[in-house]
Each structure stands twice: as C-alpha cells, then as structure tokens.
C-alpha cells in the first residue's frame, strides 16, 4: 500500500508499529503538488517555533478548495498543558511564526503559487477541537467554521 511504518518495540514476539506516512502520496491545490515527504519535512521544522517541541503529538494536512484562493489547512494535535485538557496557544505571534516556517519549508512551486501568482491562499488556523470531526465526517469544510488566517507574510519564491 505504500505505508511507511517504524517499529517502536515488541509485545511478546509481535512487532509494535508507529505510522510515519504514506510513500509517494501527493496533495494538491491549483497546479502545484505537495508530497508527503514535503509535509514530513515541514512537521519536523515547524514545532521548533512552539514553546516546547514536545507539544506536537500528531498532525494531518488537507486542501480546502471551498474558498478563493484555495489553501491548505494543517491540523495539529497538541499535548495538554493544563488541568482542563486544553492547550492555551492564543499567542498569535507564535502561531504566525509556525505558519511562516511551514510555508517557507514547502516546495518552490508552492511558494511561487502562494507569493507571486497569489493563487494559493494563506495557511489558516481553525477553531479548537476541529480535528475531532475529521475521522467521522468528510464534510469538515462545508460546516460553519471560525478561521483565523495567520500567514500574512508571503514565502520566498525565488530559486537558489
């Protein structure tokens, strides 16, 4: 199937696995294409901006073509830091920097579509708890949502 797994240990003689990603999988908006390898690279760089890199538990990314321009939405599952089970990350400066790191880490074609052609919209932060709907509903983007677009800087689009 192309799943990439990492052996994390054994239970009796059966191996225990951690899902890493899917090989050769691509998501796309407009004409650019972002591979799973691009996403995995981004996920190793963006959490460095957070107060603690131990906050990120898992994540997923999908394309949202219900808006103009289209954009990617990245969902991060964060570890709880307080008694109520909620993570307080209302510091938009930290989240803005995370979005900028993500966009700078994506491929050149994405950066050109985002900054020069402006046919790909900014990364967005959705309301808390949205990831709870993902496994149960494919209609995540058609439901009412609160979006706070954070990525106000455009990524550098020039080739090296």
UniProtKB/TrEMBL annotation:
InterPro entries: GH3, GH3_C, GH3_M. The keyword Ligase applies. Keywords: Ligase. The keyword Ligase applies. Residues 38-123 form the GH3 C-terminal domain. Residues 1-22 form the GH3 middle domain. GO terms for molecular function: ligase activity. Belongs to the IAA-amido conjugating enzyme family. PANTHER family: (RAPE) HYPOTHETICAL PROTEIN, GH3 DOMAIN-CONTAINING PROTEIN. This is Indole-3-acetic acid-amido synthetase GH3.11. It comes from Cardamine amara subsp. amara. The lineage of its organism: Eukaryota, Viridiplantae, Streptophyta, Embryophyta, Tracheophyta.
